[in-house]
Design goal:
There is one protein chain. The N and C termini lie far apart (about 65 Å). The protein is mainly beta. The relative contact order is 0.19. About 10% of the residues lie in helices and about 30% in strands. Strands 12-19-16-17-14-13-20 form a 7-stranded mixed beta barrel.
Length: about 300
Amino acid sequence: MTDRAVVVVRAGALTTVQDEGRPGHAHLGVPRSGALDRPAAALVNRLVGNPPEAAVLEATLNGCALRPRCAVTVAVGGAPCPVSVDGRPAPWGAPVRVPAGALLDVGTALSGVRAYVALSGGVAVEPVLGSRSTDLLSGLGPPPLAHGAVLPLGCVTGPPARVDTVPQPAPPRELVLRMTAGPRADWFTPGALRTLTTRAYRVSSASNRIGLRTEGPALERAVRGELPSEGMVLGAVQVPPDGGPVVFLADHPTTGGYPVVGVVRQEDLAGAAQAVPGTPVRFVASGRGSWRRAGG
């Protein structure tokens, strides 16, 4: 039994191990996966002295609780939430020293959806295809955290950051998604393309790590036929038969049979990771020449 480990006392609604993901395996049917809010994961790693590729915990909505077997430095970021050590308040967004045997509690998000927990040395579960990320679609990587699970930690590689706190972006009150025309934009009517970029949408409670689902006006198709499955990319805006746009996130399938009307810029997807159900969504067209060609 190693002392460089933490024990899961409370797993929360959905807490997974995530790192930078496993890109480059789409031809094998393996999604990229990785932290949905990549800037938040990178920041908490920097705060505890980890390299950017170290694995962190991604906690959804109601956090998690851990008891380290050794003294560790911890940082919590992403969705703002209360943090405590043995019942005493601890800072969010800053490095915190947690003694061996103490209880680190990451509470329910005050805003946003996903909190990120970095531990000095990183979570050192066995990598699969070069990544320690949990992939909920394919089942690769470690399972979501469960009560009593023991997570090994890696060796400390650097000192924690010398800061009291670091500014982090607030979860979006309105999610603005800039996108270029997708490969099947011409499968939709000109009116549908105007609807997508001028009408109001909101985040659906059915959203998950696979995709951000939206509620709002349906998009009318100009082409009614079936579409053979084709490759999908991160940020693809796929439109299923109900006409509601779905933005593919880290655990998205690598192929799909519904038309892709647009592709969201990757730098806008961190906001999608933190957008709570009901958040207004605004799709903004970029590369307007391609949209004009798609709309006829």
